[in-house]
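[Automated response] Your request has been received and processed.

Submitted sequence:
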Amino acid sequence: AAPSPAFARCNCACVDGDMQPICTTSIEITPICPPSVCPLAPLAVTPIQPPTIPPVGASYCYPAQVLNPHIKRYQWQQLCR
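Generated structure:
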């Protein structure tokens, strides 16, 4: 488990092959992401996730492939909206 940031932040990232805003909390103002070409996410079986209760302000959570810009590969992350 990675340590959580001491402050909330939002950024744009490639999620399942499309540029989307990702925020660390649901109360942040999401940025408008610039048009961008993302590499296609590889075909993969969605990992089995234990049931979770969405955080305050979110209605659901789901696993998604998010491009890690440091290693230039997609990694599975739990995203909530």
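Summary generated for your ticket: The CA atoms of residues 48 and 60 lie 16 Å apart. The two ends are 21 Å apart (CA to CA).
If you did not submit this request, please reply to this message.
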